[in-house]
Amino acid sequence: MPIAQQRIRCIAIREPGPPSVLEPAHQAERSTPPGWVRVKVAASGVNRADLLQRRGAYPPPPGVSPTIPGLEYAGVVEEVGDRCRLRAPGDPVMGILPGEGYAETVWVPEDQTIRVPLGMELVEAAAIPEVFLTAWDALTRQAGLVAGESILIHAVGSGVGTAALQLAAVSGALAVGTTRSPEKLERALAMGLAHGVAAREGWVEQLGALAPGGFDVIMDLVGAAYVSANLGLLAEGARWIVVGVPGGSTAQVEFRTLMARRARIQGTVLRARPDHEKAALARAFERRIVPLFEEGRLRPVIDTILPAEEVSTAHERLEASDSFGKLLLRW
User: What angle do CA 218, 222, 226 make, to 5 degrees?
Assistant: First the structure.
């Protein structure tokens, strides 16, 4: 059958709503533009942004389908467009997307692809791009975390949290984490978390006792609900970087505390960045971070791998905060 007549399996949002609105669908084949590659997807990652898009609260950038969610993939290059020099058919790659990642085939700018670590299964590699790119960019490139510093990671049992924990260890920083689940805390401690605190009564005081001088970096994956706590836990010259806001996106900030600590608050997101920034991040990640997976110093943390058709179950688990690490959809 000619390629132009083929149809590609995907997962679509029937209408904004609960996980049940996700359903198997098909999209039309397309040609591969110059500088882009076509990838046969082994697995797609599930992220909180997908939940928001499913509810109609997080539209994708212009030109990206609002009905097909998905921000990351791993697979094999099937075709390269004109002017491609980095990849060839058969190359295993992974990466992030602005959307349309819940599909058995995706098209990606070649310079935004990342090679899969040698010896790693493709499905396993799908747990890397979104969380490790986000955590590495936030901690190293923006917050400037260095050896000997302390970092507080909220929601340490999440995908980005487990990635940040590992990257902090590689950098030589002391990592402390919070989570509402004692079970997740135990698993994070087994992964090398120096200290863990369950976000229950008295948790802010426990953190204050662990770091009387405050934390050099706070990686905030919660948002507004933890603002007052974070202000009291800032070290002199601290960097507080906001990566996720499931606990709310609006809060009052006591600026005098921020001023007195000479601290800064910074927000970050990957999806809305221009293509040249995503390409630069992908190239730097491939050079500096992929080898750490090959050396065994980093590893993807996977909670569950489900068939793509069971995407509603994946969304239900993520909404309930039942998962530790990544949820993946296998094609």
Answer: 70
Q: Taking the model in full, what pTM does it have?
A: 0.94
Q: 140 near 289, Cβ under 8 Å?
A: no
CA distance 241 to 216: 11
Spatial CB neighbours of 56, under 8 Å, sequence gap ≥ 6: 16
DSSP classification of residue 203? H
Q: Which of 69, 9, 10, 41 is nearest to 126 (CA)?
A: 41
Three-state secondary-structure class, residue 238: strand
Tens place of pLDDT for every residue, the chain, 331 residues?
A: 344 457 899 999 999 999 999 999 999 999 999 999 999 999 999 999 999 999 999 999 999 999 999 999 999 999 999 999 999 999 999 999 999 999 999 999 999 999 999 999 999 999 999 999 999 999 999 999 999 999 999 999 999 999 999 999 999 999 999 999 999 999 999 999 999 999 999 999 999 999 999 999 999 999 999 999 999 999 999 999 999 999 999 999 999 999 999 999 999 999 989 999 999 999 999 999 999 999 999 999 999 999 999 999 999 999 998 899 999 999 9
Identify the CA nearest to 69 among candidates 46, 36, 40, 42.
Answer: 46
Which residues 6+ apart lie within 8 Å of 209 measured at CB?
A: none
How far apart are alpha carbons 289 and 175 in whole angstroms?
Answer: 19
CATH 3.90.180.10 maps onto the chain at 3-128+271-330
Q: Are strands 174-179 and 150-154 parallel, antiparallel or unpaired?
A: parallel
Beta bridge partners of 74: 43, 94
CATH assignment of 3-128+271-330, among 3.30.420.40, 3.40.50.11540, 3.90.180.10, 3.40.640.10 = 3.90.180.10
